[in-house]
Amino acid sequence: MTKATAGIHHITAIVGDPQENVDFYAVVLGLRLVKKTVNFDDPGTYHLYFGNEKGQPGTIMTFFPWAGARNGRIGTGQVGTTTFVVPENTLGFWEERLLTFNVSVRKETRFGEEFLQFNDPHGLHLEIVAREEGPNSKWEDGSVTAGFAIKGFGGAILNTAAPYKTADLLENVMGMEKVGQQDDYLRFRSYADLGNVVDIQLTASTRGEMGAGTVHHIAFRAEDFEDHKEWQSHIAHQGYFPTDVKDRDYFNAIYFREHGGILFEIATDPPGFTRDETFDALGEELKLPQWLETHRTRIEEVLTPITVRERKEEQS
């Protein structure tokens, strides 16, 4: 069986205070909070989803926020850096915006591209790159208008204990194209125009430890439910051990640990985030899976209230 993923579906990270998380991603980065739900395995914890106007695959950054959570350590066996992509000729806008919010910015060049690198409030490593490919986001909030808004993912940097085994997985199992090697990085590209670039860092780092400021897993795209079942069979046939299919309400998911220690997921594009909210109301109400609705009152008592600040508050 020959398979090829379109690229990154979503990336999920562990962070600290949920309101700080919302303030940074919705206000500073200008992403849309498209879904406010809970961690299905720990319903006393939020699961927050941010993305473009619809939260389309290739744009979705998700978080498990725990106030007071122990800090993790970014290292081997994790996604080291999450890359966002913006329209061409807008890096100057983003550098100025980040500095306005007192976010320190570093610059790096890889494969002929310039990246703005920075950390979120809980230590997560992020970067922004400008590219022509990929549709502009239509979400406008505050001073981040569509011409400058984050389109979605540019990709990710993987810190793996077995870089060439991870490379083999990406190329020969996931169907990504090897672009080449430059200095300490191998680059792979999928056929989509967002979430389509994955860099592998060849030099091993200190072993990562899960906690606030680290990525929990990276998810790749399956076209639909039938394609998803094919991926499950394909991954197992290649010597990995995928889980049973998990219904996550907004997509189905399977998980497996690759040989370099990184937790991979394959997630379906459908049904998406408008299955239980209208487009205009995305992210406004706490949404629970049906099997948790009877516990809503208790869950709402446990969760810390969060709000997306109004535009007028943006730089107050």
UniProtKB/TrEMBL annotation:
Source domain of life: Bacteria
InterPro entries per UniProt: Extradiol_RC_dioxygenase, Glyas_Bleomycin-R_OHBP_Dase, Glyas_Fos-R_dOase_dom, VOC_core
SUPFAM superfamilies: Glyoxalase/Bleomycin resistance protein/Dihydroxybiphenyl dioxygenase (SSF54593)
Pfam family of the protein (one): Glyoxalase
GO molecular function, one term: dioxygenase activity
Keywords: Dioxygenase, Oxidoreductase
PANTHER family: RING-CLEAVING DIOXYGENASE MHQE-RELATED
Name of the protein in question: Ring-cleaving dioxygenase
Organism: Halobacillus naozhouensis
